[in-house]
Specification:
mainly alpha, 66% helix, 0% strand
C-alpha cells in the first residue's frame, strides 16, 4: 500500500512538473514573438507552434493570448497575498499589505513590480476588463485575509463593520499599488522619488492613504476636514 501511495505521489509530481514546463514554454514563446513582431500581429497558432503544443493545449492554460500579458502580475499579486497571511498580528492592516507587496514585488532592481511597471506598452492588455478583473480578484483575496486577521485578534466575523473595514482597506491598498505602477510608467524620470524607484513611489502612495487622502500641504492655506454625516 505504501509503495502504491509513493508511486501515485510520484506520478502526480511528474504531471505537475510537466504542466509547469508546458506553461513556461507557452509564455516564453509568446514573449519572444511579441518582441519580434508585435502583440497584435502574433496569433495563438504561432504561439502554440513555437511552444510545440496544440492550440487546444494552449487554451487549457490560457483563455486568450492577452492572458499571457498578466502572468507576471498575477504571480506577484499571489505572492503578496501569501506574504500578507504571514505578517505578524497587531501590525496596522494597511502597513501589513504595504510590506507584503514590498516582500513579493521588490526582490531587487530586476523583476517584480519595477519590471511590470516599466514593461513595454505591448505588455498592457488592450482589453482593460481583464486587468480590472485581476485586481478585483486580488482585492477580494486581500479582504478575506484581513477578515481572518481581524478575527484572530478578537473581532466578530459576522459583524458588517468588520467585513466593510477589510474591504475598504483592501481596495485602498490596491489603488495605491496601481497608482504607483501608473506613476512610474507615466513619469519614469520623476526626481522626487529617485527616478523610477518603484519602492519609493509605492511608499509615497501608501503614505497618502495612511494620511487620510488629504490634499498636499500648500503654504499659506488652511486645510478643510470633511466631517462625517450624522
Amino acid at each position: 500500500m505504501a509503495e502504491q501511495d509513493e508511486e501515485a505521489s510520484g506520478s502526480e509530481g511528474r504531471w505537475a512538473r510537466r504542466k509547469e514546463v508546458t506553461r513556461a514554454a507557452i509564455v516564453s514563446s509568446a514573449l519572444r514573438l511579441f518582441d519580434a513582431q508585435g502583440f497584435q500581429a502574433t496569433t495563438v497558432q504561432q504561439i502554440a507552434e513555437a511552444a510545440q503544443v496544440s492550440e487546444r493545449t494552449f487554451f487549457r492554460y490560457f483563455e486568450s493570448k492577452e492572458d499571457l500579458l498578466l502572468t507576471d502580475l498575477v504571480a506577484m499579486l499571489t505572492e503578496a497575498a501569501t506574504c500578507l497571511a504571514l505578517r505578524p498580528l497587531g501590525e496596522a492592516p494597511l502597513e501589513a499589505i504595504h510590506q507584503s507587496i514590498r516582500s513579493a514585488a521588490l526582490p531587487g532592481r530586476d523583476g517584480g513590480l519595477a519590471a511590470i511597471a516599466a514593461a513595454p506598452s505591448w505588455t498592457l492588455p488592450s482589453n482593460p476588463a481583464r486587468l480590472v478583473r485581476v485586481f478585483m480578484e486580488w482585492e477580494d483575496r486581500l479582504s478575506r485575509i484581513l477578515v481572518g486577521r481581524f478575527v484572530a485578534e478578537g473581532a466578530d466575523p459576522t459583524a458588517p463593520e468588520v467585513q466593510l473595514r477589510a474591504a475598504v482597506i483592501a481596495r485602498a491598498a490596491v489603488a495605491a499599488t496601481r497608482s504607483s505602477m501608473r506613476h512610474v510608467r507615466a513619469y519614469p524620470r520623476d526626481g522626487r522619488f529617485g527616478g523610477a524607484a518603484i519602492g519609493d513611489v509605492l511608499a509615497a502612495a501608501f503614505a497618502v492613504v495612511a494620511d487620510g487622502c488629504r490634499p498636499p500641504a500648500v503654504a499659506g492655506t488652511r486645510r478643510t476636514h470633511v466631517r462625517p454625516a450624522r
